[in-house]
Structure formats: structure tokens, C-alpha cells
User: Which sequence fits this backbone?
């Protein structure tokens, strides 16, 4: 998606060869016009694939996922990163390890918000090792629900997430695929 790649070139900052800072439009401040276009691009790709519900993982996935849900006129469910005292019953959980941040969390979903015959589209901001998406796949599979697609805003294509998810049979669609980066430059895979 050209507007997204242009924005990453203009405002993204590679901290090193692995981590891209995009907090001026995606992770902290949010460019809602760009997110609207992101939602429409996902809708263009996934419309007609029988999707019935969008899911994301809090927090940075929420903006692009909400815009996608709006563009596709579908409900949105935000998976939580920890249980809470008011979220005690009817809940499924799986542990997700973040290699980028060196943290672990309990991906948490209230069953009530997903129907057994749903075909779910996962939207997330970054794809690195694919741990979050594998966690979503695990939770949905446990409920007998189909993960029909994965839409990613920025994929770090030099990390194993995309291949790993495709090997599991997932349909992965990324709007910007970073081939390599360093402090001075960011190179994309041309589609
Ligand atoms: P994975 O799910 O593909 O394995 O990714 P990984 O665990 O390595 O990364 C997890 C967290 O780190 C996610 O945020 C993800 O958005 C973020 N992340 C990964 N790579 C980058 C990067 O290059 N730049 C930035 N800015 N973030 C990156 P999270 O823990 O879910 O937090 P949140 O921001 O959604 O609240």
C-alpha cells in the first residue's frame, strides 16, 4: 500500500535492524485518515471471503481493526492480554511470548463474543515472529472456529511470522512488507 509505505519512509525510524518505530502514526499518535485507508485496503482484499467477525489483540491493533470492521460492516472483538476479576467466567486463555518486547501475557477471550460458525479475520499492527497470531489461532481452534484470514499493517518480512502462519494454512495479507532496515534506510518487498 503506497500511502503506508510513504508514511513509513517519511516518519518511521529503524531503531536497529529489528525494531521500527512508528509511534507518530500507529502506536502512540494515530493518523486516523491513514487508518481509514488501511481499513479500506483490508476490506478490498478480504471482502467476498465469507468473513463474519474481526478480531485484534489490544492495544495497537485496535485502530486498524476498528477501521476494517467499519469498512466491512462487521463486529469487532478485542482480545485482552490478561484476565481480570470481572472477566472470570466463560473465558479461554493461552500464553503468548513476545520476543520483540521480552514479555509474556495471557491472551484472553470471552467465548460469548465468538460464535461457533464464525469465520474470523485477525487484524494486527505488526507481524514479527507470529506469536500473537499463533495464540489467536490456538484460542479459536479450541473453540472450533475458523481463522479465515490475517491482515497485517506492517510485516517484518525478514522475521519468520509470515512463513510460519502460511505453513499453518493461514491466508496472510500484509499492507507493507519490510525486507530490511537499518538506522538510515527502510527497504520494502515490492508486490
Ligand atoms: P509476534 O506476535 O509477531 O511474534 O511479535 P512480537 O511478539 O515479536 O512482538 C510483540 C509486540 O511488539 C507487539 O506489541 C508488536 O506490535 C510489537 N512489535 C513487534 N515488532 C515491532 C517493531 O518493529 N516496532 C514496534 N513499534 N513494535 C513492534 P504488543 O506487545 O502487542 O503491544 P501493543 O503495542 O499492541 O500494545
Assistant:
Amino acid at each position: 500500500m503506497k500511502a503506508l509505505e510513504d508514511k513509513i519512509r517519511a516518519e518511521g525510524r529503524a531503531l536497529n535492524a529489528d525494531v521500527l518505530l512508528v509511534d507518530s502514526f500507529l502506536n502512540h499518535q494515530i493518523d486516523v485518515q491513514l487508518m481509514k485507508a488501511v481499513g479500506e485496503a483490508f476490506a478490498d482484499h478480504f471482502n467476498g471471503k465469507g468473513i463474519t467477525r474481526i478480531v485484534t489483540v489490544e492495544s495497537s491493533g485496535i485502530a486498524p481493526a476498528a477501521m476494517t470492521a467499519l469498512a466491512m460492516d462487521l463486529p469487532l472483538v478485542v482480545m485482552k492480554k490478561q484476565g481480570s476479576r470481572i472477566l472470570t467466567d466463560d473465558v479461554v486463555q493461552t500464553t503468548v511470548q513476545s520476543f520483540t518486547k521480552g514479555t509474556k501475557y495471557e491472551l484472553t477471550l470471552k467465548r460469548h463474543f465468538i460464535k461457533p460458525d464464525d469465520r474470523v479475520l485477525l487484524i494486527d499492527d505488526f507481524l514479527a515472529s507470529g506469536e500473537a497470531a499463533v495464540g489467536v489461532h490456538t484460542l479459536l481452534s479450541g473453540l472450533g472456529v475458523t481463522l479465515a484470514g490475517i491482515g497485517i499493517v506492517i510485516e517484518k518480512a525478514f522475521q519468520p511470522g509470515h512463513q510460519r502462519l502460511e505453513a499453518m494454512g493461514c491466508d496472510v495479507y500484509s499492507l507493507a512488507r519490510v525486507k530490511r532496515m537499518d538506522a538510515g534506510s527502510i527497504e520494502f518487498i515490492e508486490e
Q: What stands out?
A: The chain is about 30% helix and 35% strand. The beta strands are 13-14, 20-21, 53-57, 76-79, 91-98, 103-110, 119-127, 146-156, 172-182, 185-188. The CA atoms of residues 14 and 119 lie 35 Å apart.
